[in-house]
Amino acid sequence: MRRLIFLGPPGAGKGTQAKRLADSYEIPHISTGDLLRAAVVQQNELGIKAKGYMDRGELVPDSLILDMVRDRLTKLDATAAGWILDGFPRNVAQAEFLDKLLSEINQESDIVLNLEVPDEELVIRLLGRGRADDTEDTIRRRLEVYREQTAPVIGYYRHSDRLVSVNGNLSIEEVTAQLQRVVPC
Ligand code: AMP
Fold it and tell me: Is 90 labeled as catalytic in the residue annotation?
């Protein structure tokens, strides 16, 4: 059983690496971005409310995100097998919520992985990805939002002994190997 939190700027390769770790450790990959995109496709209430924020590269308000995360983490597959969280927490309030939620449901994260990639490389990767929200303006805004709201989450976890930073500016295989080396057995 492993419970992994995955941090890093947009374009760092979190999604790719989180999927590879989820496969190798046989744990659910919980991406709040994927959950939100599914809600947008379904055009349910969450999707309709979230879409505008996502298109602009802003964070979707915590009031919409927190229930979604609680529901997902308390599903049977996650309580039974563990999880890798990708794209959450995205600000310090979400990190505090997660701590509270985990203690309520008697769970603890094992490690916080922080994927580091230089800014110039992030822009190249994001422009090459071609996702609906990968336009130049939205990319710029997402990187700003990362710096202002998400980067402080690294500081939040720095005081715990669970934060490990990994160089994400290597080949996909090399990054996965590094991550596997630091994830506790
Ligand atoms: P991602 O796939 O993680 O890059 O997320 C895509 C978009 O979904 C982000 O730009 C945000 O608009 C929204 N989003 C994903 N996760 C969160 C979160 N934890 N809190 C707020 N908004 C989020």
Answer: yes
